[in-house]
Amino acid sequence: MHINKDNFTYIANAVKLSFTDKDEKQITKELNKMLEYIDTMKELDTSNVKPLTHVLPQTNVFREDEVICYDTSGQLNSEIDKIKVLRD
Amino acid sequence: MINDITSMEALRLARKIKDKELSVIEVLRTQLNAVYEREPLYNSYITIMEDEAYRQAKFVQQRIDTGGLADSPLAGVLVAIKDNICTKSVRTTCASKMLEEFIPSYDATVIERLKEAGVILIGKVNLDEFAMGGTTTSSYFGATKNPWNVKHVPGGSSGGSASVVAAEEAYISLGSDTGGSIRQPASFCGVVGIKPTYGTVSRYGLIPFAPSLDQIGPIGRCVSDCVAMLEVISGHDPKDSTSIRKKNYSYREALVDDIKGMRIGIPKLYLDEGLDDDVHKKFTEVVKTYKGLGADVEFFDMNVLRYSPQAYFVISCAEATSSLSRFDGLKYGYGIEEYEGIQELYIKSRSEAFGDEVKRRIMLGAFTQSPGKYEDYYNKARKIRRLIYQAYEEAFEKYDVLLSPEQIKTAPPLNYKVNDPKEKHQSEMLNASVNLAGLPAVCLPCGQDRNGLPIGIQLIAKQFGEKNIIRAAYAFEQTRPYERPSILT
User: Fold this and answer.
1) Is B82 annotated in the active site?
2) pLDDT digit string (tens) for B216-226?
3) Active-site residue among B44, B82, B124, B308?
4) Which among B181, B316, B349, B433 is annotated as catalytic?
5) Prediction ipTM score
6) Average confidence score pLDDT of chain A
7) Is B115 an annotated catalytic residue?
C-alpha cells in the first residue's frame, strides 16, 4: 500500500485540494492500483544511467529590461464586459 | 452544396479562393451552416467564433484581392483551435470550470502565425480537461462524439480537433500532443495528425500540461494539408526557451510518392500487446503495402518501450502538478467568492474547479515527488527516459522510420471506462515513448474494423526527421482513397 490516510492528507494539503471521505477512498484505491502498475518499472536496471529531463539543450530566454507602455485598459475593460455576458 | 464546399481539401479550397471561384465569406457562411447543423450531434466546439471569423474573412479577402497572400497556400482556410491554445480576446477554457471565463489578452505564437498566413480561426474545440485523457469525455463542456459513430468517443485529448476535421466542421485544426493526444484521436476519427519534433513549434501560449513533453501539431484530412499547416506554425520563437533554431522549416518537398529502399523498422513488442484482431489484420495489410512500394521492412526488438507508459505517467503527472499550481483562485480563472483566509481560498477554488481526472493526476504527481519517493519514482522515470531516448537513437541508425499500429483497438463506446492500468499501458506504449524522446510522428488512417470504425497507423522518425515520416505517409496515402464518415455521404 503506497497511499494511506496519513500521506493522502499530507499530499492533498501540499497541492491545495480537499476531498470528501467518499472521494478520498475512491482516489486512494485508484492511485494505489496505478502505483502498483508503475512499480513494474523497477524491474528495469537503471544503475549508472543519468536522469534525462529534457531531450534538447535548454537556454534561458532573457529580454532587455526596457520600459514599454502598454495601454490595454480599454481592451481589458471590454474583456470584463465579455465575462459579464458569459455569466448571464 | 454544403458538402461540395466543406468536404474539400484545405489546399484545394485555398486554390479556388485565390482563383476567385469561391469567396472567403461564401466559404465561411457555408462552413458555419454545416457547423450549426452538425454540432447538436457531435459537440466538438466549445466556442464558435462567428463574429470574429467574419471580421477575419473580410480582412483576408482584401489581402488576397490585393495580392498580399500570394505565397500563403492556406489563405482563406477555416481552422479550429484546441481550447488550450490562447487566443486574444476569445475565451480559452482548457475544457475546465477553472478557466470557463478566462479571456487571454494575447495570442499564442501559433495563432499569430496563422493570422499572418491569412488562415481564419472558426472556433475553439473541445478536449479532455487540461488535455488530460484520451476520450474527450472529461470536458466540463460535455463529451464530444465520434463522427463515425456518435455512440463512441473521438479519442483525446484533442478529440474536438479530430472530430471537427472528420465531420467537416473545419478544414484543419490544431491539437496538442503530450503522450499521443494528436495521434490517438486522429486514429479514432480516421484523419491525419502530426506530432512534430519537440521544439519545432512554439509552445508560447499553449496552456501547459507537461512542458517537457507538450507539442502543438496539425490535424487534417490528408497529409498535404497537414504539411502545409506544419510549415505555417513551425519556426523559432524567442518567447519559448525550448524552441529550436533551424535554417529550414520547409517540408513540402517530402510529398513524394516514392519510398523505394526506405528502411522501415517495426518494434516487435507492438504486435505482442493485445492488438485487436481487426487492427492486426489491417496492420498486416499495411506492412504488405509498404513492401509492395519497395520499402525494406524489418521487425526488431526494442523491449525498453515496455516501460515507457510507467515513465510517462510519472513524468507527465509530476510536471502537471507543477503546471497547475498557478491556478490558485487569485491570478486568473475560477475563485470562490467567500472565504476565510488564503488557504481556504486556494483549497476551495481548486477543489471546486478541477475535475476528478485532473485532481487524480495532481495527487499522483505530488506523491511521486514527495519526500522518500523522489528517487524511486521521479528519478527512476527520468533514467528510463534516457534509456528510451538511446534505444530510439540506436534504432534510427538502422531505420529511416518506425511503423506501428496507432492504437491497439478502435474507438471505445462513450460509457467505456478503463479501470485496468494495464489496458492504459497498451495504449500508451504506442504513443508516450515518442514524447519522452521528443520525436516526430504521424498518424494516418488505414481502413476500418468490422463495426466501421477507423483504424490508424503511426510512423515515427528521429528528431527533425519530419521529412521521412511525411514521405512514408504520403506514399501510403496514395494507395487508398480518403474515406469520410458514412453519415456525411
Assistant:
1) yes
2) 999 999 999 99
3) B82
4) B181
5) 0.92
6) 87
7) no
Instruction: Kindly report, residue by residue over B245-279, the tens digit of the pLDDT.
Output: 888 899 999 999 999 999 999 999 888 778 899 99
Pick from B91, B198, B381: CB nearest A55: B198
CA gap B291, B468 in Å, rounded: 16
**Nearest-by-Cβ selection for A30 from B360, B379, B437:** B360
Looking at the complex, report in whole angstroms how far the Cα of residue A75 sits from the nearest Cα belonging to chain B: 8
Residue B364 pLDDT level (bands cut at 50, 70, 90): very high
Cell of B340: 476565510
* B166, B136 contact by CB (below 8 A): no
**Optimal mutation site among A7, A9, A17, interface B, most CBs of chain B within 10 A:** A17
pLDDT digits (tens, 9 = 90+) for A41-58: 999 999 999 999 888 877
Question: Whose grid coordinates read 471580421?
Answer: B55
With a cut of 90, say whether residue B116 has pLDDT above it. yes
Q: Which of residues 9-28 of A touch B (CB under 8 A)?
A: 10-12, 14-19, 23, 27
CB-nearest partner of A46 from B91, B347, B383: B383
B244–A14 C-beta distance less than 8 A: no
Give the minimum alpha-carbon distance from B448 to chain A in angstroms, rounded to a whole number: 32
Count helices and strands in chain A by DSSP H and E runs? 3, 0
Summarised one tens digit per residue, pLDDT across range B196-240 is: 999 999 999 999 999 999 999 999 999 999 999 999 999 999 899
Smallest CA-to-CA distance from B331 within B346, B309, B319, B341 is with B346
Answer yes or no: do B241 and A59 touch at CB < 8 A.
yes
User: What pLDDT, on a 0 to 100 scale, did the predictor assign at position A1?
Assistant: 67
Contacts of A71 (CB under 8 A, 6+ apart): none
Q: How many CB pairs under 8 A join A and B?
A: 140
Q: How confident is the model at residue B1 (pLDDT cuts 50, 70, 90)?
A: low
Placement of cell 523505394 in the chain: B260
Domains identified in chain B and CATH numbers: 1-489 (3.90.1300.10)
> pLDDT tens for residues B79-100?
999 999 999 999 999 999 999 9
- Among the listed residues B187, B146, B131, B62, the one whose alpha carbon sits nearest the alpha carbon of residue B448: B187
A32 in contact with chain B, both atoms CB, cutoff 8 A: no
Tell which residue, B164, B172, B227, B163, has the closest CA to residue B200: B227
